[in-house]
Amino acid sequence: MERIPILKMGDALLITIQVDMHDRLAMALEDDLTQKIVQSSAKGVLIDISSLEIVDSFIGRMLDNIAAVSRILDAQTVVVGMRPAVAITLVELGLALTGVKTALNVEKGMALIGKQVASARGTSGRNAG
To answer: Any residues with CB less than 8 A from the CB of 18 and at least 6 apart, and which?
Structure first.
């Protein structure tokens, strides 16, 4: 079965979806990502969906689930490259993607994760003393 690669970049994991997502691939991605967050102690997850033409309700819920699991594992989720039609579809489906930040591209998304990680480190450093 094909898998979507998950790359570690500093404190973050980068996922670039370059194929049409089907349900089994989406579930495999969710499982693989959960394991990778735990293994790498990642503090951020960046998902590039710029290649996705459409997002159905299952894929939308999968993105929401990934964000929820990531939050529980102390990692923030940023979705980048969302096409206007995909954004409209998510709104029409009633999917809020709670806890998911968005950015225009990978560079801006990684910068957002970097700010969140630095902020979290600053907060935890102040509480330690």
So the answer is: 4, 51
pLDDT tens, position by position, 45-80? 999 999 888 788 888 888 889 999 999 999 999 999
CB–CB of 113/78 below 8 Å? yes
Task: Indicate the pTM of the whole model.
Answer: 0.88
Q: What is the mean pLDDT of the chain?
A: 88
Strand pairing category for 76-80 and 100-103: parallel
Direct distance between the N- and C-terminal alpha carbons of the chain, in angstroms, rounded to an integer:
49
Q: Looking at domain 6-128, does it have CATH number 3.40.1500.20?
A: no
**Which one, of 99, 82, 4, 5, lies nearest residue 48 by Cα?**
82
Domain ranges of the chain: 6-128
